[in-house]
Amino acid sequence: MPEEINRQWLLASRPSGFPQEGNFELNEASLPNAEHGEVMIKLEYLSIDPYMRGRMNEGKSYTPGVQIGEVMTGEGVGVVVESRSSALSAGDHVVTRTGWQEYSTAHESAVRKVDASVAPVSTALGVLGMPGLTAYHGTFDVIDPRPGDTFVVSAASGAVGGVVGQLAKKSGCRVIGTAGSDEKIAYIVNELGFDAGINYKTENVAERLAALCPNGIDGYFDNVGGETTDAVLENLATGARIAICGQIANYNDVEQAMGPRNLRTLLVAQAKMQGFLVFQFVQKHPAALERLSAWVADGSLKYKEHIVEGFEEMPRAFIGMMHGANFGKLLVKV
Ligand SMILES: NC(=O)c1ccc[n+]([C@@H]2O[C@H](COP(=O)([O-])OP(=O)(O)OC[C@H]3O[C@@H](n4cnc5c(N)ncnc54)[C@H](OP(=O)(O)O)[C@@H]3O)[C@@H](O)[C@H]2O)c1
Question: How many domains are contained in the chain?
């Protein structure tokens, strides 16, 4: 029976620069067995995230990389098809670290049950999952936006950035986003309520920021690094707070980029710059999810999903994201 085969995407080789389809290999394995306390999950959506690029590398990061021949790492949401757990039943929807495969097992302690009546289950990988929590903690726990602040977020139409800008608006800030197409800029301004947007591919970001932020930037949520961040640093207000969330502009560099070299701007602005990982706020996740869920339910927090159909599309979807092809939270429908 075809259902008895578990298709998986393995890491076949490590990329140098941008990932290529040949770095992945489609494998067919037999179905995993759920042990005592575990469930077997049939995946419905798999998440594609920028951090996966780092996991393809050898060497030290905050989590070990994927080994050659191993299933690519990632989160998914799916339905329990077999339960050996007293806490979960067949038919429940759960989100957990599944890897890039069609079926996976997980211990009951490692899964979060998803309430499909609150929002579509796919949101457990986006606005009501890791990216939404990243936006929440980076905005409130790192930047701490205040009414009247000028707030800038990069990769503003993406899974994290789109939520960040709306949270900053809720905090009474004037919000400016940067993104890589006019369509994305129109979306953040017209649909998400940002005050302005800058297309970093066609506009001079430093000049536009200087014009849009005459009193400087108080809060910056950095998803990209690179030249966009250089331009922000040249336009800081006194007492600026900067959250370093991601540096996707450098994830495919063959040689590690040096810099930034304009840190004098932080000194002059008496600014604070802090890197963070979503997991450091794990104790606060339940309260954050409650607030995010309430905002999604009352319609005051909007989200956009970019759903690619078909498990076989995983590598192409991932590679596309590294070139900005996704518009919203990137998911693959298995
Ligand atoms: N610290 C944490 O715990 C944590 C957790 C989750 C995510 N992150 C980071 O947050 C960032 C956003 O993640 P996400 O899941 O929301 O992804 P996303 O924004 O939905 O997708 C990635 C986007 O990055 C932009 N991009 C790609 N290459 C770029 C480049 N060279 N320069 C500028 N922008 C580029 C593209 O949009 P454009 O068309 O606008 O270029 C692309 O759509 C990533 O850097 C990720 O690593 C960090």
Answer: 2
